[in-house]
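Why does residue order matter? Because the sequence determines the fold. Keep that principle in mind as you read this record.
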Amino acid sequence: MSVPNTSRTWVLQTPPLDGVDDQTWVEEVRPIPQLKANEVLVRVSHLSNDPAQRGWMQADATAGRLYVVPIVKGDAMRSHAMGVVVLSTSTKFAVGDRVMGSMYWSECIMPSHTSPTLPMSVFGGTWMAAYFGLHAAGEVKAGQSVLVSGAAGATGGAVIQIAKHLVGCSRIVGIAGGADKCRFVVDVLGADQCLDYKSPTFKDDLMAVEEFDLYFDNVGGAILDAALLKVKRHGRVSLCGAISSYNDRSQSTYYNWFETISQRITLKGFISSDHATDHPAAKQRILAAIVAKKLVVEGIETIVKAPFEKIPSVWMELFKGTNQGKLLTELISEM
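Structure:
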């Protein structure tokens, strides 16, 4: 396999305020520099598609208030990714090794940090967000009840499985869009019930269920607003994402905010990387549960095979809700 000296890269051209479109990124061909000591060149095979990436490139973001370095005009689009080492001067990695790390929307990159490959869906950021959103932010305990939005997505689905099999929660109810996704949430992931937010009776359905100790929020907007009515007095809300308003900030309107005061609800935002020192132990617990066949790891990914030029359009599927579980892009090799 020949080693290239240039690489196609998707670059942020117009940082978005609201929606993203075909003008947000531009494809460039960039030279690949010669490797220095202890560096590797990786041919990217799979890209992780995450809603969090939308916040990293927000046009009016204040760098000091972001939890990562922002992506600005002219930067390569950053992403967690997997790939194969095609050139190495490293003592840790040899040609042919599969690695995972923070990379870019590029054909080939020279990452500063890589690690031996583990599946991005199970040991990646989404499962760590679910684990620490439940334990650290949500302070959930065995026997308690959990409501989770985005239940058919990567993080929401992990919340259901962790709450059920690692925490021992007594009742877990998911919120997802459409009958097929709700069946997946109950039949595959193991939730006790799933409420379809696309149903005309959604709000009535939500009001009909018992209150919850913890609401794990992945979406914000109208669903968060409605869910506040179902959090117990002195209950908690774990704030993980707000995908409903990433491309339309008018969706961030709340009519039930007084519930947080009258019911003394604790709302806590969190970033899983704040608990990075605890990630290895969390991953060991998850791995042990997989080995014991307590956790479902089959059928929890949506893998889209796509050529390089389709990378942005696959990522934008996140905001259409077409994926079930983790959305991954498998690059069709053209090299």
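Residues 44 and 83 are 4 Å apart (CA to CA).
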